[in-house]
Give the backbone structure.
Amino acid sequence: MIASLEQASKVYQSGDTEIVALQPTDLEIRAGELILIIGPSGSGKTTLLSLLGCVIYPTQGRVNINGTYTSALNENELAKLRLQEIGFVFQSINLISPLTGLENVMLPLQLSKTAKTETRERAEAALTAVNMADRQHFLPKELSGGQQQRVAIARALVTNPELILCDEPTAALDATSAEVIMQELKQLARQNKAVAVVTHDKRLEAYADRIIKVENGFVIP
Ligand SMILES: Nc1ncnc2c1ncn2[C@@H]1O[C@H](COP(=O)(O)OP(=O)(O)OP(=O)(O)O)[C@@H](O)[C@H]1O
């Protein structure tokens, strides 16, 4: 098991009102599976992903990431856990525009102070894994949306995280590019990672090992 929620909930405070974004939830995420998280707008999908991604603490209950309870950590320790254990892929891709693909992929390793030669070798290997080695010196603007997203996946996996969290990774892509991205993510799950994908895209259901529905803050496994 790579991640779990134990009666974990999230309540946001907005002025005098409390918004229950996620009801107390039990959930287990295992190595080797690609999970889709689906549900209407405002149902709590991003909140669930943020809990798994160590971006927020649960209001109640516990979140365990690869053996560590997030509530036991301070903000700095949580950020470190995030860097070590989790790779993120977003709809908006978020590559840094003046940096080449290779430089973008090297960043997380530079942040964790990996040696220079190793950083470069691992970044090149990650780009090779998503079939982008031949364009590693291109700037993001010189790549198609699908190619940019593959670089972003390389950046997410370069730290060798156990858990890869994706928020609408195919929303900005055409059908062919979306298919390539999902195949890359499926491949990562086959390499014993856990991959969780939030999506509205029905086409992605074909790739899922498991589909989790979120409705009005309730997670329906
Ligand atoms: N920082 C916040 N402060 C207050 N309320 C919030 C905050 N973040 C989310 N919410 C509320 O929590 C609920 C769940 O939001 P969440 O973003 O998890 O939904 P979602 O399923 O990801 O929606 P979408 O598909 O539109 O992205 C919503 O009612 C939202 O308004």
Remarks:
- The first strand starts at residue 3 and ends at 14.
- Residues 3-220 form a domain with the Rossmann fold fold (CATH 3.40.50.300).
